[in-house]
Design goal:
Structural class: alpha+beta
Number of helices: 4
Strand order of the largest sheet: 2-1-3-4
Number of strands: 4
Distance between the termini: 14 Å
Length: 127
């Protein structure tokens, strides 16, 4: 039982460290790469094209410009929120009671939930 607990603790440590490393690398993204991520997040998360968007603090002014450009080129009507994001990477889209949170912690958690078995299997082999 103690061995199983130690292995589980070690797996959790590795997953936490991996999330932290990914998070730090994401925060270092240059604008070109980050703009593609933000654009994809917006285009995958919107429903009506008139949602309010709260950008993260990473490249915030450039993200606002990207949203304005999307509105002009694609005939969307996204609104940039006056609310400041308390996160660095990602964004939040909202419209009425509907809110889509596409911030780095949420995106990482979703990705890890989907791939955790595969990651653990690759790191530790089948148990």
């Amino acid at each position: 039982m103690e061995l199983s607990n130690k292995r589980l603790h070690r797996k959790n440590e590795i997953m936490r460290d991996l999330k932290n490393k990914i998070s730090e690398e994401m925060k270092k993204l240059k604008w070109g790469d980050y703009s593609e991520l933000v654009k994809r997040l917006i285009l995958e998360a919107f429903e009506d094209g008139d949602e309010e968007i709260i950008p993260g603090t990473l490249h915030e002014d450039k993200v606002k410009k990207l949203i304005e450009d999307l509105n002009k080129k694609k005939e969307y009507d996204f609104e940039i929120s006056k609310e400041k994001g308390d996160f660095e990477v990602g964004l939040i889209l909202s419209r009425g009671k509907r809110r889509v949170t596409a911030t780095l912690p949420v995106l990482l958690e979703e990705a890890f939930e989907e791939t955790q078995e595969e990651i653990v299997g690759n790191l530790f082999g089948s148990e």
